[in-house]
Design a protein that fits this description.
about 180 residues; alpha+beta; 2,3-Dihydroxybiphenyl 1,2-Dioxygenase, domain 1; eleven-stranded mixed β-sheet
Length: about 180
């Protein structure tokens, strides 16, 4: 657990081809099922303090035990940390995420400790923020507000993985 951000809950993996990544993780690694959204819904998004209303990123979620894996493929030219990561020649783990219930307090504590916001957004599941500091590739920290809606979805993803038998590896809708 991070003394500053709380429990490590998710690994964010930025990919160039989400379909092939889901196939690899399910067939080769046995991780699934994947819950896929072609367009991650965001009502507001900003990168380096500038607002953009046209972010189109596909995401897929699956769990391995209590750790959630999130695959992210950006499908537009909107400036973002995902585009920045790929432009640097990287692909793979881009961030780890915590899901605090006391989001505002943890955000203020991070800012007071010298962290700066690189990108942030809001949507139907709640707010999220990525901090600029990166000790080495893959150590960006994201926080996603543990709203009831977000946790209902994340709990259903984890439950589906608990006894997954390998069937129906890619589900093209969020869990009900």
């Amino acid at each position: 657990m991070s003394r500053l951000f709380g429990s490590f809950r998710q690994v964010g993996i930025v990919v160039r081809d989400i379909e092939s990544a889901m196939k690899h993780w399910s067939e080769v690694c046995g991780v699934g099922p994947w819950f896929y959204a072609d367009k991650f819904t965001v009502s507001s998004f900003s990168y380096n303090g500038k607002r953009y209303d046209d972010l189109h990123a596909s995401i897929a979620l699956a769990n391995s035990g209590d750790v959630q894996l999130e695959l992210i493929q950006q499908r537009c030219d909107t400036p973002s940390m995902y585009k920045e990561f790929l432009a640097a020649g990287r692909e793979g783990m881009q961030h780890w995420s915590s899901w605090p219930e006391d989001y505002d307090a943890v955000l203020q504590r991070a800012l007071a400790n010298g962290y700066t916001v690189a990108q942030e957004g809001d949507g139907p599941r709640g707010r999220f923020v990525y901090f600029r500091q990166e000790g080495h590739p893959g150590t960006v920290i994201e926080m996603a507000h543990a709203t009831p809606t977000r946790m209902r979805i994340f709990d259903a993803v984890r439950a589906a993985a608990a006894n997954w038998d390998g069937t129906d590896p890619i589900r093209r809708q969020w869990p009900a």
